[in-house]
Amino acid sequence: MLFDEAAWVRMGLVEALQRYLPVVHVALVDTLDVSRRARDLTNLQRAQVLLAGVLDAVGGRLRRPFDPEQVIVAGQSYGGLAAASLATCRPDLAGAAILQSASLWHR
Length: 107
Known about the structure:
globular, 50% helix, single chain, two-stranded parallel sheet, alpha/beta, 4 strands
């Protein structure tokens, strides 16, 4: 799951993943606005509800549950903070995280 949808789309990441990986399912999460992004991505409980909802929705479409070891969360700034928190505190949801300039200073 990629937080910060617009940034990843601008970088062409989805096309690159599809080109180089035979089977990959990518869920992009739009940040909507700055205040919602700050509220949702800096709060572990909100971020885990978001991730669980995305996994349920995508798993339902694919008709199979996800193995947490195959789930990677990624994001920049607050999205990176959310990704780190999820992979660290909720390994039952996500097995790995990619952080880009994560806001690790945030409390």
